[in-house]
Design a protein that fits this description.
Keywords: Cell membrane, Membrane, Transmembrane, Transmembrane helix, Transport. By secondary structure, the protein is mainly alpha-helical. The protein has helices at residues 2-23, 31-52, 59-82, 88-97, 103-144, 154-162, 165-179, 185-195, 198-209, 219-243, 248-257, 266-272, 277-302. The chain has a single domain, classed as Na+/H+ antiporter like fold (Up-down Bundle), CATH 1.20.1530.
Amino acid sequence: MDSFNSQFLYSVLIIALGYILKRTNLIKEQDGEGLARIIFNLTLPSLLIVTFHDIEIDSSLILLIVIAIVYGLIQAALGLFLFKNEEKRTKGMLSMMAPGFNIGLFAFPLVEAIWGKEGLKYFGMFDFGNALIVFGVIYVIGSIYSDAGERKDLKHVVGKVTKSVPLITYVTVCTLNFTGVTIPSVILQVSETISVANMPLSLLLLGIYLNFSFAKGSSRQIIKLLSLRYVVGLGIGILLFMFLPFESMFKYTVLIALILPMSASVLPYAVEFDYDRKFVGTVSNITIIVSFFLLWGVGTLLI
């Protein structure tokens, strides 16, 4: 438990450092865009290579992918139903924010610090299914209800998915693993060196993007959206934790994954589809704060 609390304290300090650097103008929020590209296209893929090159895939890990996809579809459907009486564009924006989780930037640094490669293995498999929701379902919802330009066809959506470097890395490394192809040691060694930077950079980025300037006049929508994400997520997570007949790490993964923050990809989608990016950014920040304290609470009780 002391180790768990210590890791959370270290994470809070690194996030706070990123926020202080932004507030003192030593780093600007715009600099976060370049840092995010480095994380998503370099340090995170490197971490995935190191974690998954020799992983033994069993049925429980495959089930994590299924859970992530099914839960994402359920949340998308609930979002469309809950916000059905909202104006068309508002309905699309809110429904787009209901499914999907920020696993790469938010969960991976904490999981790596607390459980190491074993934890990353489980959360990585969940993130595989989550990526299909984020780059497929969420993008489609945002596109359908947007008035910004022409709606994107299936070809465009598929193209968006296939350009995700983390998703490509998942598929490539797992395929090589299944077929028994060994990744050259030099690639593994370079990847391991680069992957060390993923945790501190990701936490710094969360601090850089943290913003306490919340939009006014939209508290009702925010409360409904947060209730959908956290009440449903925590409820289903607890049920699965209690009744799934798998090892503790599997149960921790499901319970924690379902209360993670909103996907980081939603904000770029809001820009692309001309939604209210300030509102989306506000809710994204709130979910980071809520999830952080929820995870600390869950961890304190269970670990």
